[in-house]
Amino acid sequence: MSSHLSADHPAAQPPGHGSVEALISQTRRLRGDVDAVRRDSQEGAADARGRWQRALYDLALNQLTDLNAHLAQLRDGPAPAPRPGSLLSRVGSAEWNLLTDEAEWSGELFHILGRAPGSVPLSLDELPSLVLAEDRPKLTAMVTDCLVDARPIDGEFRVAHPDGAVRTVHMMGEPVLDTDGSTASMWAVLRDVSELRRSQRVVSETRDSLRHPPPPPWHGLLRFPEAGRPGLDLAAAHLPSAAGPRSRYGGWYDACPLGVDGDTLLAVGDFETPGTEAHDPAVFVGALRGLALAGTRPGRLRSGLTALLEDTTLSPVRGAVYCGYRPGTRTLTWADASGAVPLLFRGGTGRGLSGQDEATLEAGDLLLLHTGALEPAAVRHLLSLAPRLTGAGPAQDVVRIVTHELGDFPSRQDACVLVARVTP
């Protein structure tokens, strides 16, 4: 790696024109072959395996398209900008002089890091100010190892742009030594790999969906309307215990009309005796919906359900949260959180709605309800995913991310999550 060669410009001696042209032709033929196989293999494939295959084909086709673009740059010189939706972007470069404390950035690096063109390049000490707090220790460790132990840098971190966008940046670098062998400066190349990582996550998440157990037997009762509820995009999932599936389920969730004014009841909870024959979520949810349709407000649902359950053999509810959403004013009310407080994600941040019982939501807000069976570490992990969850799109995509991420918690009990995205 040479410190005097900018990553924004081709080398002085590019490869032979004919050899590059041959590679471009081979890449285009391969892309055409992959596209043909994709079309032939995806007819009628609408199940989880079909989604996984589509994600893999899309990733391969995007990477071949980008490879073709990079080869064209070798032949013709650098393109002015990557194509829209490209998985790979042009790289930027920087050199930080340790003797003069000066920094030199290439033009593309300003765009990658969200800095205004022509502004003063940041020093190594200032660079972490652009990085998300949880990634700063990683960046500091990479730079320290490079400057102190002369280790090459090869790692990733996330940066926050002024418009709130969070981008993933891959950095490669090495120390530049002076004549006596001491480190005089550090040179690095950086590129935005956000789209590449997003595509890889889609492949991973759709692959993992193939391993999920079938939905609980009461899932059919809780299928949300295709159009969701007024002002909300809804999705939910059951997360079986890490110890393995059981014949009975400890959690439940529902979203249904709350009275006749267009309001929606959002609720999740679990039972005192999970995994026994003493409860049936379908019967319980039927009773819950009856009370909701009668106009029983969230604050009175617990007492109403308790009275109904006393005359049955159903297990009592151990913990639940009942939320009412009014689309006209985007007002959310809730009651009886019992430790499992609603989580609100907005603008790349997340927090628990504790210490109050009413909030005004905004278009794009993401509400996540969960049963008390989720351990505190799992809840903290969900909050740390705020930038990714708020930018994930439809509620079903958020649920896929959540179930994938919570699969790494070996002590997880039988749990349920419900996601509601506020629509414009």
TrEMBL record:
Residue ranges occupied by any PAC domain in the UniProt entry: 153-205
Record Gene3D superfamilies: 2.10.70.100, PAS domain (3.30.450.20), PPM-type phosphatase domain (3.60.40.10)
Pfam families: PAS_3
SUPFAM superfamilies from the UniProt entry: PYP-like sensor domain (PAS domain) (SSF55785)
Descriptive protein name: PAS domain-containing protein
Organism, as annotated: Streptomyces coelicoflavus
